[in-house]
Design a protein that fits this description.
With 452 residues, this protein is of the alpha+beta class. It is 50% helix and 9% strand. Belongs to the sigma-54 factor family.
């Protein structure tokens, strides 16, 4: 029997081509594995797809020793095995959710319900000039020159488009975007209107005193107005995107049954294969045909076993992740625990690189959404007093708690945050604090300052 692993001089362990294929399959994404299966299916007449709703297919370890029947007829028919055969027979694509609707399609649908046939082509042209943020990036004068429509008609149609969802769509600048939303919510008046129309840049600099002086109002009134304005969406189109996003189908689903989390490797992400029942008798075949058949059957069995090994390894790794990260599944991202791939590898008695390959390009559906499995293994930061490892996400959680609990009139500076973290045995630099604060979406202490 041939060995899958070979020894060279100096006792150096090398992998045979078959072992290399198994490793490659382990780290493939579902999409890449589909392509590999399709290619092998088109080249190998001994492979068939298994109907997951049907009875169990013939065991591959028995089929390898079984004879093959009606080979000539089957080989003749197999010449027509194409990509289309793969798509039809692999698995039920109805289980894949439809892609999310993009911004342009959503606006065009609303236009169909709003405008007359004569107005429709004008509205469509304007909508096609709206970028992924939701802003009109072509002036009405340029649109007029392009489609030769009266400017008043263009203004009228644009104003109606600006009533579409999402609120603020079709604006030509930030002030107009905020104005549309403020009008809808009923606070486009007084100091709020003045800020939106004249002082947007000063909001970004938190120069509230300057606004109060210019408008001759109290800083409290300015602060209240700014708080309302900050609730508006400056980029209303970004929630939809400019293109249809590719829907991620999770490789693994974790479900809670009673008080236990169950790991399920999704059967629809990879089609199931088996050896064709037609290969049963080779008694009357010549040696050349037998050799060809055995080669194809062995290749098919190796592929099937590699796919099963991929599934089993992924299951084992994810089961360990669930055990190690139970707090996350109960409470969410803020409860992610420190976890390294070596911890999982040691528990399963496999190499760390095997864990890395098993989770590469794989996604898990959790009670808190679909996430990359790599998210469970975060970058580490060492705490100086205890030597324990704290993941960066946990440090961000502490920073977030400190900022949320600060006095808004005297917000915490990055150096103060750094000092407070040291009191909790988290020793990181002020620059790292600033980086984490910005990643959390918080401005500097000067720009967070509010006025009582």
């Amino acid at each position: 029997m041939k060995q899958d692993l070979s020894l060279q001089l100096g006792q150096k362990l090398i992998m045979t081509p078959k072992m290399q294929q198994a490793v490659k399959i382990l780290q493939m994404s579902s999409q890449e594995l589909h392509k590999t299966i399709e290619e092998e299916y088109n080249e190998n007449p001994t492979l068939e797809f298994t109907d997951i709703s049907a009875e169990e297919p013939v065991s591959t370890d028995k089929v390898a020793a079984d004879d093959i029947n009606n080979l000539a007829e089957f080989l003749n028919n197999s010449s027509n095995r194409t990509s289309s055969s793969f798509n039809k027979e692999s698995f039920d694509f109805k289980t894949i959710p439809a892609p999310t609707q993009n911004l342009a399609d959503m606006l065009h649908e609303q236009a169909l319900l709003t405008f007359t046939a004569n107005q429709q082509h004008i509205a469509d042209y304007i909508i096609d000039c709206i970028d992924e943020r939701g802003y009109l990036i072509m002036s009405l004068e340029d649109i007029q020159a392009a489609i030769h429509v009266d400017i008043n008609i263009l203004n009228n149609i644009l104003e109606r488009i600006q009533t579409f969802e999402p609120l603020g769509i079709g604006a030509r600048n930030l002030s107009e975007c905020l104005r549309i939303q403020a009008c809808y919510y009923g606070f486009y008046h007084g100091i709020s209107a003045a800020i939106i129309d004249k002082y947007i840049e000063l909001i970004g600099k938190n120069s509230l005193k300057k606004i109060a002086e210019k408008e001759n109002v109290s800083i409290i009134e300015v602060q209240d107005a700014v708080n309302k304005i900050k609730q508006l969406n400056p980029k209303p189109g970004c929630a939809y995107g400019n293109e249809i996003p590719q829907h991620i189908i999770p490789d693994v689903t974790v479900q809670k049954v009673d008080d236990t989390y169950i790991v399920l490797v999704n059967q629809y992400t990879v089609p199931s294969l088996h050896i064709s029942d037609l290969y049963r008798n080779t008694h009357n075949m010549d040696e050349q045909t037998k050799s060809y058949v055995e080669k194809r059957v062995n290749s098919a069995i190796w592929l099937i076993n590699s796919i099963e090994q991929r599934r089993q390894t992924l299951y084992n790794v994810c089961e360990q992740i669930v055990q190690q990260q139970k707090a996350f599944f109960d409470n969410g991202f803020d409860s992610l625990a420190p976890l390294t791939m070596s911890t999982i590898a040691d528990t399963l008695n496999i190499h760390e690189s095997t864990v890395s390959r098993a989770i590469a390009n794989k996604y898990m559906e959790t009670p808190h959404g679909i996430i990359s499995i790599r998210k469970f293994f975060s970058a580490n930061v060492t705490s100086t007093s205890t030597g324990e490892e704290l993941i960066s996400r946990q440090i961000k959680t502490v920073i977030k708690e400190l900022i949320l609990g600060e006095n808004p009139v005297k917000p915490l500076s990055d150096q103060k945050l750094c000092n407070l973290l040291k009191e909790r045995d988290i020793n990181i630099s002020r620059r790292t604090v600033m980086k984490y604060r910005e990643q959390l979406g918080y401005q500097s202490s000067a720009n967070r300052k509010q006025y009582s």
